[in-house]
Design a protein that fits this description.
Elements lengths: L8 E3 L7 H6 L4 E4 L15 H12 L3 E5 L4 H10 L3 E3 L8 H10 L6 E5 L2 H10 L3 E5 L8 H11 L8
Parallel strand pairs: 1-6, 2-3, 2-5, 3-4, 5-6
Bound molecules: magnesium ion.
Amino acid sequence: MIEKIRPDRVVKAVEMIDLDQLKQSGIRALIIDIDNTLTPHHKDVIIDSKLEWLKDATTRGFLVYLLSNNHANRIKSISSSYDLSGYGFAFKPFSIYYKKILKDSGCLPHQVCCIGDQLLTDILGAKLHGMASIYVEPISPRDIIFSRFSRWLEKRLMIKKGN
Ligand SMILES: [Mg+2]
């Protein structure tokens, strides 16, 4: 089980991910969590430095999909305001939107990298679908009840950092 939630890499923040390196490793699409990865929890505005990184990713030709378990209407509103594809009520780590994104992007699983701040949704979802994964440290400690449980569990599981 621990292998299934061990990310390929751990970084402090999304903007520290080297897009050149991802491209060279054959990644074509990015599935990115929203709350606590791009926005502080319950805020609808993507932090400037993270938005710059997202723009850089799209400029470099990555297909970018925002994927969240949070309310669908809120996620639709956030993603459309930044002109990005986004899905809420995604039920990560379950398959429905991972399969949709693979179909829509035309990518193979190993060409997709999932990025997020939770092991039991973002990282497990990636692993279950054969995708690459990068764990980012959460922006803020405030979180919904499920996330609190998830973090409690995560603290008890070892995360191998820096690889
Ligand atoms: Mg999150």
